[in-house]
Write a structure and sequence with these properties.
The complex is a heterodimer. Chain A is an alpha+beta fold. Chain A contains 19 helices and 19 strands. In chain A, the strands form six sheets. A five-stranded mixed beta sheet of chain A has the order 16-15-17-19-18, covered by helices on one side. In chain A, strands 2-1-13-14 form a four-stranded mixed beta sheet. A three-stranded antiparallel beta sheet of chain A has the order 5-6-7. In chain A, a hairpin with a 5-residue loop joins β11 and β12. By secondary structure, chain B is of the alpha/beta class. Chain B is built from twelve helices and five strands. Chain B has a five-stranded parallel beta sheet with strand order 2-1-3-4-5, with helices on both faces. In chain B, α3 links the parallel β3 and β4. In chain B, α10 crosses α12 and α11 packs antiparallel against α12. Chain B is globular, with a radius of gyration of 19 Å. Chain B starts with 5 loop residues before the first strand and ends with a helix. Classes of the chains: A alpha+beta, B alpha/beta. Chains A and B meet through α1, α4, α5 and α6 of A and α1, α2, α3, α5 and α9 of B.
Chain lengths: 592, 259
């Protein structure tokens, strides 16, 4: 796989929630190819931030992620504070920590109960699980909603909260509201203890691997907003030095970017944080961890779910500590004059470090933005993990077992929202049998392929029709359960071809191509070459090319391949037959 | 017993935040799952995009060529289609790219731009298929959602709010941030339904709920400029979360041209 390494200062942001798929090629008990594909269309945040005002930043970056908007606001606001020389201390610093506690609480609760635990207890989803474990599911929902209410205390709402501004907050919460949440947090502590014990009792696979953990580390506290970037293999840098050690490259199969630390994959997120910072947990949480039969640091990614539960306990203890001393401040923010400069922000999002860099001009307008989310940092590590995990599980296992295990491995990372993994399609190829077996979780995994013969009932122009007729008799050999293959014969369709391109993933058009040169070459035209194919397709020149270009412009063009044979009026029957054979073989290859 | 109504929640280009209006319902989510069959909701688990449903909720904007096929299929499979959130109703914040040269952006960001299959515009669902009800907002609230679900389940026409935010703000007896502090508040042209959260925080509304009915956006443009904002700053008040909404788009572009 040729992948060009690009410098990190090229602005990049590619989200990962949404559709993901795993492609796996196994031959002779060996994984030849493994690709976690990420499809989420780019949303160009870093680009449209350029030219906007610094004060729009918290409201803009929140929209990158509905699950962790606070993380985006915090990284951004710390970067801007740095440019304006604002040092947030006291009330503002504590409230920023408090708001972040709320986000960890809701995000971790959502992940554990709705996304991860159903795997380990054998349910397809949380709704099924709720029928058998109503108490546990309700406990999860209570914790999640407490987290949301903590965010709302400072941000008025939990998704895209609106209380954060440069230098602090728009408004300080009322003392009564803070006091009420404090009481609820104290009650919730028992839920958190139960949750930690419950996750420890889960039957988790024993899968120890060698990997590098990266997290923020602060001298006095468990990291949320501040600290140095530290790894368990000796890295220890300020956040401004990030780009000298971490490099991103664009892998063709993904709209997210692979990040590497000194050329190698690395882990960010709850387990990495705990591996590096377990000594900074508050005494009460540490005492709880001591009682468990697992020790941190841990090299087993399946301990991530326990790490999340422990962090839930931590944030409740931390939020109680902060709110016990709650008093309304004189001012909820520090005002400072606008100035130009470069600022960095790096905070611990629920899924790991979220790194931002901004440049402002004299008027406070953003001239450049770089945002590196945790999931793109984990992607290389996820691929490595799947490979090692599946090999130790045994590649001879049937594909349902392999798929479920790969899904569990991916979910350990909570890649943004795990809907990516719920959509996981395993495209497993075993080279021994040369068959693509796609285990589809959903019907959408079925590829709809159309083979369309184009022509007219006259002479060599009937070639496209004949080919399709021959193929229909031979479908058994090319049929696969992972796709819906249909054959069509069209008589000079013109623009009506567009109708036939709808609801289709791939189209193979078979046509005769007239020439007078007495050569009978096979021509294969991919859609990208269509523009230059002007002189090639002459048989049904108008319809096909124009229709396809029209479909392309309308965005209705599926993957399309045009296969044709140069045919001439004076071809012998023998020549014609050999052309057909060649063409059928090629089509079968395309269908494989 | 009659079969339970079927619902589906679909995602297009978005931040997933509006689906959280379901996942943040708390125990109401369990109640809902007892009253309806949730056929498709990838974020929560069930995955089945093809079974016909009574209500399909659609989050996100149309941003890739594959989306065209998907949204058509969803429309064909649904009795009611309800688009939820700014992305689905106006193209969302990512519609800011409609005002720029996306191809250039992709080339600037990715080493292999040929592998990025993204349309150059982010467009709302109603531009492609018939939408029965639109819930505006970035993000929508659980209350909006439950109102619509409740109405449809009891066979009544849902009432969708389209009043100006000022009305909601006044009903809550908040102090007007534009009058008292000279804040460039978008309340006079923005749809109510959020709870007037920004004015309650003492800050200007930034129009995340989209245009209200019968707005006079051009007049507000002039008013905001009159507060002392630069012309292009004023333009960005209109071209932000809902830049694809016609009223905001036109006022923003025309106001900017005026200078």
């Amino acid at each position: 796989m040729a992948n060009k390494t690009i410098n990190i200062n090229v602005p990049v942001l590619a989200r990962v929630e949404g559709e993901g798929a795993l492609e796996l090629k196994i031959s002779n008990q060996h994984i030849d190819e493994l690709r976690l594909r990420i499809y989420e269309p780019p949303r160009y945040f870093e680009k449209f931030l350029e030219g906007r005002d610094y004060y729009d930043l918290p409201d803009t970056v929140a929209r990158i992620c509905g699950i962790c908007p606070v993380a985006y606001q915090m990284s951004a606001i710390h970067a801007i504070d740095a440019i304006f020389d604002i040092k947030a201390t006291g009330w503002i610093r504590e409230m920023r920590r408090l708001m972040y506690c709320g986000e960890w609480l809701q995000s971790h609760s959502l992940h554990i109960h709705m996304l991860a635990v159903p795997d380990f207890l054998g349910f397809n989803n949380v709704i099924e699980m709720a029928a058998v474990y109503p108490g546990e599911v309700n406990r999860g929902l209570r914790l999640q909603s407490l987290g949301n209410d903590l965010i709302s205390l400072l941000g008025a709402r939990s998704v895209h909260p609106l209380g954060v501004r440069t230098g602090g907050f728009y408004k300080a919460p009322a003392t009564a509201a803070a006091h009420e949440l404090l009481q609820r947090l104290k009650i919730a502590l028992a839920d958190a203890v139960d949750l930690v014990k419950w996750t420890t009792a889960l039957e988790l696979p024993d899968d120890n691997q060698d990997f590098t953990s990266v997290a923020l580390r602060h001298t006095e506290e468990y990291p949320l907003n501040e600290g140095r970037l530290v790894s368990d293999k000796g890295l220890d840098i300020g956040i401004a030095e990030y780009q000298q050690h971490f490099k991103e490259s664009h892998i063709p199969h993904s709209t997210a970017l692979h990040s590497l630390l000194d050329g190698k994959p690395y882990l960010v997120g709850p387990l990495a944080r705990l591996n590096i910072n377990h000594d900074k947990l508050p005494a009460e949480t540490l005492a709880l961890v001591e009682q468990l039969n697992i020790r941190f640091p841990s090299n087993n990614m399946f301990h991530s779910i326990i790490a999340r539960a422990i962090e839930i306990h931590f944030v409740i203890i931390e939020a109680i500590r902060i709110l016990e001393n709650y008093q309304k401040p004189e001012s909820a923010f520090i005002d400072a004059p606008v100035k130009a400069g470069v600022g960095y922000g790096c905070t611990e999002a629920p899924r790991g470090i979220l790194w931002h860099r901004y440049e402002l001009d004299n008027a406070g307008k953003i001239t450049s933005a770089i945002i590196i989310p945790p999931t793109s940092q984990n992607q290389a590590r996820i691929e490595e993990d799947i490979k090692v995990s599946l090999e130790s599980l045994g590649l001879d296992k049937n594909e349902d077992v392999l798929r479920l295990h790969a899904e569990k491995v991916i979910r350990n990372y909570d890649p943004c929202i795990s809907c990516a993994t719920h959509f996981l399609k395993l495209d497993l190829q075993r080279a021994e049998v040369h068959v693509t077996q796609a285990a589809s979780l959903d019907k959408k995994a079925i590829r709809r392929i159309k083979v369309i013969g184009i022509g007219s009932p006259f002479g060599e122009d009937k070639l496209g029709w004949d080919i399709v007729d021959l193929l229909i008799q031979d479908t058994s050999r090319i049929w696969n359960s992972d796709r819906e293959l249909t054959f069509h014969i069209l008589d000079r369709p013109g623009p009506l071809l567009l109708e036939h391109l709808k609801n289709t993933d791939k189209v193979i058009l078979v046509d005769a191509i007239h020439n007078t040169r007495h050569t009978h070459n096979l021509i294969r035209i991919g859609i990208d070459q269509l523009d230059q194919a002007g002189t090639l397709i002459s048989s049904h020149g108008l319809g096909i090319k124009e229709s396809l270009l029209l479909a392309k412009t309308l965005g209705q063009l599926p993957e399309t391949i045009i296969l044709g044979i140069e045919a001439s009026i004076d071809m012998t029957t023998q020549e014609m037959e050999s052309c057909k054979e060649k063409l059928i073989e090629t089509i079968k290859q395309e269908l494989d | 017993m009659a079969a339970k109504p079927k619902i589906a929640v679909h995602k297009f280009s978005s931040c997933d935040g509006c689906q959280l209006a379901f996942l943040n319902m708390g125990e109401a989510l369990i109640t809902l799952s007892q009253r309806v069959d949730i056929i498709h909701f990838a974020e929560a688990g069930p995955v089945d995009e093809t079974t016909p449903v009574d209500i399909a909720f659609v989050e996100g904007s149309i941003a890739t060529s594959h989306d065209y096929q998907r949204i058509e299929q969803i429309r064909n499979n649904s009795r009611y289609l309800v688009s939820i959130g700014a992305c689905a109703t106006s193209g969302g914040i990512q519609a800011l790219r409609n005002l720029a040269d996306t191809e250039q952006w992709t080339a600037a960001i990715y080493a292999h731009p040929e592998h990025i299959h993204s349309l150059d515009k982010s467009t709302p669902i109603a531009q492609h298929v018939k939408v029965d009800y639109e819930l505006w907002g970035c993000p929508i609230s659980t209350k909006q959602l439950l109102t619509v679900v409740g109405s449809l389940l009891s066979g009544a026409q849902p009432v969708v709010e389209d009043d100006k935010l000022c009305m909601e703000c006044k009903r809550q007896q908040k102090i007007c941030v534009m009058v008292s502090k000279g804040e460039p508040c978008m309340g006079p042209v923005t749809r109510s339904g959020c709870g007037a959260l920004c004015p309650a925080m003492g800050r200007a509304c930034y129009a995340c709920y989209g245009p209200a009915e019968n707005t006079n956006a051009n007049a507000l443009f002039t008013r905001i400029e009159g507060l002392g904002l630069l012309n292009d700053e004023t333009t960005r008040r209109f071209l932000f979360i809902n830049s694809g909404a016609r009223e905001f788009h036109d006022a923003g572009i025309e106001g900017n041209r005026k200078k």
